[in-house]
Structures are given as structure tokens and as C-alpha cells.
UniProtKB/TrEMBL annotation:
Gene3D superfamilies: Vaccinia Virus protein VP39
UniProt keywords, alphabetically: Signal
InterPro entries the record matches: Methyltransf_16, SAM-dependent_MTases_sf
SUPFAM superfamilies: S-adenosyl-L-methionine-dependent methyltransferases
Keyword Membrane: no
Organism: Emiliania huxleyi (strain CCMP1516)
Protein name: Methyltransferase domain-containing protein
Domain of life: Eukaryota
Length: 261
């Protein structure tokens, strides 16, 4: 992670300290009602990288609002962090939203506070949280949509792709939409490129629904910079060699789950 980004995240106030001012994020796209989602933020010590709202969350929420009808739908959010996408989905009319994360305990505590903070946007919806790390047995329930923003990270792409494959193997598979920034690894390949390649190995098709560059700042008190973000839809590829896919899935499943920063 870039040193400047670590410094910015570390500077966010510790949410456990009541004497410090609460830092909130109000930058998500407005809901059709004209109202907005308000999200409490946390610093690295409390919630790791899950304590802030990333450009990918903005991109995914914007695309979902413009292209999907979530009224009455059930939604699973992977790697929820602050809960931005799941809460936004509930604000768009989803009847059920399960927000999951496998990060530090402070992440889900933060997401629950944000669920309560925005309860007025979805008074009749069921919006809950659950601990879930990629590659583990799937959360129970049938879902119409699966959302994940900035969930492709070094060491975690293969478990993520395996989780997506398992979700898509359901008798009534959900639509799976992920968003990721054009962030490069040491190898020079972007995380998005690695996700697409790994998904292909596990028998998944990836369609780029949107690729755009927008100005983004972690918080209104910080300078904005141009960030390229992609929104991807993943689905099963019925034309691949099933035996090869099974071998790839077994290989990924045998690896220990990576630590989440």
C-alpha cells in the first residue's frame, strides 16, 4: 500500500475515542428519493483498510443505481468494509441485504453502526452483517445479486474467484458485480487484470460493464486525484474444460486463506 495512503488512513480519527470528532462520508451518489447515505469512517487501527470508502464503492453504487432494479431483491455484499454498497442497495429498495467481511472485528462493528445510522432509508428491509472470509463455506441464503467493491487484493484474488464460482453454481445463480481500481502490483499487472485471469482459470467469464476515470478523495478534507475504476460482471463459462476447472478449484481451496490488512 502506498505510504501516502497509509498516512492518510492512519490520520482518520479513532472511532473508539469519544472525545474525538466523528468522521463521516457523504459522497455516495444520491438515492432516487434525493436522500443520501451517510457513513461513519474508522482508521487503520480500528478497521484496517475496511474503515474508509474507496473509489470502487462509488463506481459500483453509481453503476447499480443507473442499471439495476433492486426493488424487492436480496443482496449479498462481499468485503463490505463500511457497508457502503449493501446499505446503498437497501436504499434502492432491496428487501434484504447481508453485509459480510473477513477483516478485523472492528469492520463489522462499523458496518452495523452504519446500518443503524441509515435505517430511515430502508425502514422495512432486513439489513444485517456476518463474518465471512473468501474461500470459506458460503453464507446461507439465496441471493439475487452479489456486490463487492475493492475486494481484489494481493494474495486474495484466488479465494475471491473461488467464492464467486461457488455462488454462481447455485440452482438460481445471482448476478455478481465487482468493482476494482486500476491498481498495479509489483509484477506490473493490475489487480483487475489478475482477477480476470484467475476467474478464467476457474471457469468464469468476466464482462467489463464500465471503465472510467474520475476524481476521488478519501474524504472531503483530502485532495482529490484521478482514479481509474472498472465495474465487472462475472458469470459461469459453460464452454471450459470441467476437469481443468475442478483441478484449479482444488488447488485454490488447498491454499491457506491470506490475512486481510
Amino acid at each position: 500500500m502506498p505510504k501516502a495512503l497509509v498516512a492518510a488512513l492512519t490520520a482518520l480519527p479513532t472511532i473508539a475515542a469519544a472525545s474525538r470528532p466523528l468522521l463521516v462520508h457523504r459522497g455516495l451518489p444520491p438515492l432516487p428519493s434525493g436522500r443520501s447515505v451517510t457513513l461513519e469512517l474508522a482508521n487503520l487501527e480500528d478497521a484496517g483498510t475496511g474503515g474508509t470508502v474507496w473509489s470502487s464503492s462509488h463506481a459500483l453504487c453509481r453503476w447499480v443505481a443507473a442499471n439495476l432494479d433492486l426493488r424487492g431483491a436480496s443482496v449479498l455484499e462481499l468485503g463490505c468494509g463500511t457497508g457502503a454498497c449493501g446499505i446503498f442497495a437497501a436504499g434502492l429498495g432491496a428487501r434484504l441485504a447481508l453485509l459480510t467481511d473477513g477483516g478485523p472485528p472492528g469492520v463489522l462493528a462499523l458496518a452495523r453502526r452504519n446500518i443503524d445510522r441509515n435505517r430511515g432509508l430502508y425502514p422495512s428491509a432486513s439489513v444485517t452483517t456476518a463474518s465471512y472470509a473468501f474461500g470459506e463455506p458460503l453464507p446461507s441464503g439465496d441471493f439475487d445479486f452479489v456486490l463487492g467493491s475493492d475486494v481484489a487484493y494481493h494474495g486474495g484474488i484466488e479465494p475471491l474467484a473461488l467464492t464467486v464460482r461457488r455462488l454462481l453454481e447455485a440452482s438460481s445463480p445471482p448476478r455478481v458485480l465487482l468493482s476494482a481500481p486500476d491498481r498495479s502490483e509489483k509484477s506490473g499487472a493490475s489487480l483487475t487484470q489478475r482477477l480476470i485471469g484467475t476467474a478464467r482459470e476457474l471457469g468464469l467469464c468476466t464482462e467489463v460493464k464500465e471503465e472510467a476515470v474520475r476524481q476521488f478523495a478519501l474524504h472531503e478534507s483530502l485532495a482529490a486525484e484521478a482514479v481509474r475504476t472498472s465495474v465487472l460482471e462475472l458469470s459461469l463459462d459453460r464452454a471450459v474444460d470441467a476437469a481443468a476447472v475442478e483441478v484449479a478449484c482444488m488447488r485454490v481451496n488447498a491454499k491457506p486463506s491470506p490475512a486481510i490488512f
